[in-house]
Write a structure and sequence with these properties.
flat, 3 helices, mainly alpha
Length: 95
């Protein structure tokens, strides 16, 4: 069992954690900008697949089917309740 750290130390850890989250957000925004650049180029070339050196870039439509749980709940409450699974989880936040 480890010994508790001081409030100042945990504050430093929390600050570092928040900075890393901010850095991740910045990197995700940069990655999205690059993604949009590649998509625009594929649109210009009117293609869903592009060979670029060692990479194959794809931008394709696909279909999926998902259950509309809000509609099911509104129209068939008993059925919705019968197939609803209750879960418990934890949430961590640094505000």
């Amino acid at each position: 069992m480890s010994t508790p750290v001081s409030t100042i130390e945990i504050s430093t850890v929390a600050s570092e954690y928040r900075q890393i989250l901010a850095d991740i957000k910045t990197l995700e925004e940069m990655a999205d900008a690059l993604k949009q650049q590649m998509i625009r180029e594929m649109d210009v070339r009117n293609t869903e697949e592009l060979a670029a050196g060692e990479y194959t870039i794809r931008w394709q439509l696909y279909e999926s089917r998902r259950l509309d749980s809000a509609k099911l709940k509104a129209e068939h409450k008993d059925l919705y309740a019968a197939y609803t699974k209750h879960t418990v989880s934890t949430r961590f936040s640094v505000a």
